[in-house]
Amino acid sequence: MSRNKELLSKVGLRIDGRRANELRRIRCKLGVFTQPDGSAYLEQGLTKVLAAVYGPHQVRNRSKAQHDTCIINTQFSMAVFSTNERKKRPRGDRKSTELSIHLQQALQAVVLTELYPWSQIDVYVEVLHADGGTYPACVNAATLALVDAGIPIKEYVCACTASLANEDTPLLDVSHQEEVIGGPTLTVAALPTSGKIVLMEMSRRFHLDHLPKVLNKALEGCRDIRNILDETVKNHVKELGASTGWANKTS
Questions:
Q1: Residues 58, 63, 64, 68: is their CA dihedral positive or negative?
Q2: Within 10 A of 10 (CB to CB), how many other CB atoms are there?
Q3: What angle (nearest 5°) sits at the alpha carbon of residue 175, between those of residues 174 and 177?
Q4: What is the pLDDT of residue 247?
């Protein structure tokens, strides 16, 4: 338990100077590439992710095409320089495959796939630097890339992590250092507007008494991230309007 106590100082500050309920700084931008139909770059603390969306387009493998829905194909990969340990296989390993499936699960919950029968949407995410909360950063970046591609979604899908310090204090948006020296980490992907949970995963077991407050803290983070993403989208639309002269026409 002494290791957990290191997560919070006596004055309630974490290793990186944040309070227990503070997100890491999030910086994001839409339309970072011209080749894909949609793209986004997101920094969540020191974790940095690129996301690109292609489609909807014709299904490459026609035997997998569905008459009433669109296939969402996701691929997660990490740059060989994204961690301190050199990765021999940036994609295709067990962890990358698992995160690709989890990303697909999150996006299928919001994309209006019924609008694109016999079609396919490809979503690629690349982790440039990993410092905790890799999956949440990928979900948040992919959401922005879908918006940039103009693909209709029900609402934003956002993800965040939470943990526990000193046995009773929930920590929001856990960094890699906190993951290493702390206790179990809860990862949640949710639809903040409707309050639905899309995915929930624990690195280790939580005591049942602690789970509700850690889960609520993660959902709180998803709502805060949703507001940040929405503000980014609004600013992006304003910039597009100004560059095309829409702002002058409508004013």
A1: positive
A2: 6
A3: 120
A4: 45
Return the amino acid letter for 32.
V
Res. 138: pLDDT tops 70: yes
Instruction: Evaluate if residue 177 carries a pLDDT over 80.
Output: yes
Structural domain boundaries of the chain? 2-243
Is the confidence at residue 232, as pLDDT, over 90? Answer: yes
57-84 burial: b if 16+ Cβ within 10 Å, else e? eebeeeeebeeebbbbbbbbbbeeebee
DSSP per-residue letters across 100-133: HHHHHHHHHTTB-GGGSTTEEEEEEEEEEE-SS-
Interval 105-121 mean pLDDT:
96
Specify the pLDDT at position 246.
52
pLDDT score, position 244: 67
pLDDT tens, 59-104? Answer: 987 778 888 999 999 999 998 877 766 555 555 688 899 999 999 9
Helix H or strand E encompassing 56: strand 47-58
- The tokens for 157 are 């899908």
Cα 234 to chain centroid distance, Å, stands at 19
> Which CATH superfamily is 2-243 part of?
GHMP Kinase, N-terminal domain (3.30.230.70)
CB-CB contact of 190 with 150 (8 Å): no
Q: Does an H or E element contain 72, and which?
A: strand 71-78
Among 216, 187, 184, residue whose Cα is nearest residue 3: 184
- Alpha-carbon distance of 184 to 201, in angstroms, equals 10
Q: Check: CB of residue 132 under 8 Å from CB of residue 177.
A: yes
Indicate the pTM of the whole model: 0.90
DSSP, res 111: B
Distance of CA 248 to the CA centre of its chain: 35
